[in-house]
UniProtKB/TrEMBL annotation:
Ranges facing Cytoplasmic side: 1-30
Organism this protein belongs to: Methanoculleus sediminis
Localization annotation: Cell membrane
Higher taxonomy: Archaea, Methanobacteriati, Methanobacteriota, Stenosarchaea group, Methanomicrobia
Protein name: Preprotein translocase subunit SecG
Similarity comment: family membership: Belongs to the SEC61-beta family.
Keyword Cell membrane recorded: yes
Annotated GO CC locations: plasma membrane
Record-annotated membrane-spanning stretches: 26-51
Taxonomy, superkingdom: Archaea
GO terms (BP aspect): protein transport
Length: 52
């Protein structure tokens, strides 16, 4: 089997690096708040599904 010649890095696999920006206009939400909001919405959907 012949090797393919190319200069691409196979290890990157299409991953993109994201760096922290110093944009003060961006909305900052803590991970705990996201989990709490998700749980509250999930419980509300479960309760509404059980009632109706």
């Amino acid at each position: 089997m012949a090797k393919k010649s190319g200069g691409r890095l196979v290890s990157s696999a299409g991953l993109v690096n994201y760096y922290d920006s110093d944009d003060h206009r961006a909305i900052h939400i803590s991970p705990i708040a996201v989990v709490v909001i998700t749980v509250v919405i999930g419980v509300a959907v479960f309760v509404l599904n059980a009632l109706f």
